[in-house]
Structures are given as structure tokens and as C-alpha cells.
Amino acid sequence: MKLLEERIKNEGRILGTDVLKVDRFLNHQIDPMLMQAIGDEFADLFANQGITKILTVESSGIAPAVMTGLALQVPVVFARKNKSLTLPDDVYTAEVYSFTKQTTNQIMIDRKFINADDKVLIIDDFLANGQAVLGLLEIADAAKIDVVGVGIVIEKTFQKGHQLLAERGIHLESLAKIKAFEDGEVVFG
Ligand code: G4P
Ligand code: NA
Ligand code: NA
Questions:
Q1: Confidence (pTM)
Q2: Long-range pairs for 178-183 at CB < 8 Å and ≥24 separation?
Q3: Which atom belonging to ligand 1 lies closest to the Cα atom of 18?
Q4: What is the DSSP letter of 29?
Q5: Which phi and psi angles does 113 have, rounded to 5°?
Q6: CB 56 near ligand 1, within 6 Å
Q7: What is the pLDDT of residue 111?
Q8: Where in the cell is it found (predicted)?
């Protein structure tokens, strides 16, 4: 997606060796016009597949997920990162390990928001090591629902996530693919 690549080039900042900071339009300040274009793009890429629901994880997945849900006219459910020790009843859970932060989060979705006949599209802001998406896939398996595909705003193709999804035969669409950071520049492709 050309528009998104331009925004990454102009407004993104590279932190260390492998992190892209995009807090001007995605991870802190949000550009709703760009998010709408992103939602429309995902809706086109996953058109006519009978999607009944969008799944994502709080917090940064919510903006692109909501705009995709708007474009496809379906509800959006975000998995919560459970911070309390006592789980509410009737939830699906998965453990999500973050290599970046070296922490484990438990994510959860109330069972009443997923039905056996749902066909879901998973949306997230970044694909790095793929652990958040794997957590959602685990929940989808437990709920016995179909996953039509995964839509990612920014994929870092040099990290493990892509391969983990390919191994499972998941239909993956990423709107910007970053293959490297070189000399302080983002290399797409
Ligand atoms: P993974 O799900 O692909 O395995 O991600 P990983 O553990 O590597 O990353 C943990 C968090 O960092 C995730 O957000 C993920 O979206 C984010 N992240 C990964 N790589 C980048 C990057 O290059 N730039 C930015 N800005 N974020 C990155 P999270 O902890 O779920 O936080 P939230 O922002 O959704 O609340
Ligand atoms: Na995220
Ligand atoms: Na994030």
C-alpha cells in the first residue's frame, strides 16, 4: 500500500536494530483517515469470503480492526490482556509471549462474543514474531471457528511471524512489508 509506505518513510523512526516507531499515526496518535484507507484495503483483499467478525488484540490492533469492520459491516472483538489474577467465567484464553518485552500476557475473549458458525478475519498492527496472532489462532481453534485469514498493517518479514503463519497455511495479507532496516532507512519488499 503506497500511501502507508510513504507515511512510514516520512514519519517512522527506527529504534535499535529491529523496531519501527510509528506513534504519529498508529501506535499513539492515530490518523483516522489513514486507518479508514487501511480498513478499505483489507475489506477489498478479503472480499466475498463470508467474514462475520473481526478479531484483534488490544490496544494497537483496535484502530485498523474497527475500520476493517466498518468496511465489511461486521462486529469487531478485541482480546483483552488479562491483568487480574481472577479470570471471569466463560472466557477463552491464550498465553502470548513477547520476545520484545520478554513478558507473557494472557489474552482472553468472552465466549459470548464468538459463535461456532463465525468466520473471522484477524487484524493486527504489527507482525513481528507472530505470538499475538498465534494466541488468537489458539482461541479460534478452541472455539472451533473458521479463520479466513490474517491482515497485518506492518509486517517485518525478517522476523519469525511470517513463517509461523505460512506453516499453518494461513492466508496472510500485509499492507507494508519491511525486509530490513539499513543505514537508518526502511527497506520495503
Ligand atoms: P509478536 O506478537 O509479533 O510476537 O510481537 P512481539 O512480541 O515481537 O512484540 C510485542 C509488542 O510489540 C506487540 O505490541 C507488537 O505489536 C509490538 N511490535 C513488534 N514489533 C514492533 C515494531 O517494530 N514497532 C512497533 N511500534 N511495535 C512493534 P503489544 O505489546 O501487543 O502492544 P500494543 O501496542 O498492541 O498495546
Ligand atoms: Na499489536
Ligand atoms: Na504494538
A1: 0.96
A2: 178/8, 178/20, 178/154, 181/14, 181/17, 181/18, 181/20
A3: 23
A4: S
A5: -95, 0
A6: no
A7: 96
A8: Cytoplasm
The pLDDT tens digits for 48-77 are: 999 999 999 999 999 999 999 999 999 999
Using the structure block, give the residue that is written with the C-alpha cell 498465534.
Answer: 134
How many of the other CB atoms lie within 10 Å of CB of 55?
28
Peptide bond into 98 cis (omega under 30): no
pLDDT of residue 109: 96
- Residue-wise pLDDT tens digits, 168-184: 999 999 999 999 999 99
Instruction: Please work out whether the CB of residue 186 comes within 6 Å of at least one atom of ligand 1.
Output: no
Task: Supply the DSSP string of 32-72, one letter for each residue.
Answer: HHHHHHHHHHHHHHTTTS---EEEEETTTTHHHHHHHHHHH
* Nearest bound ligand to the CA of residue 124: 2
Q: Is 127 helix (H, G, I), strand (E, B) or coil?
A: strand
User: What is the C-alpha separation between 71 and 44, in angstroms, rounded?
Assistant: 9
In this predicted complex, what is the ipTM?
0.92
Binding residues for xanthine: 20, 27, 156
Cα 127 to ligand 2 centroid, rounded to whole Å: 8
Q: Kind and range of the H or E element at 150?
A: strand 146-156
> In this structure, are residues 129 and 157 in contact, taking their beta carbons and an 8 Å threshold?
no
Instruction: List the Cα angle 115/147/70 in 5-degree steps.
Output: 75
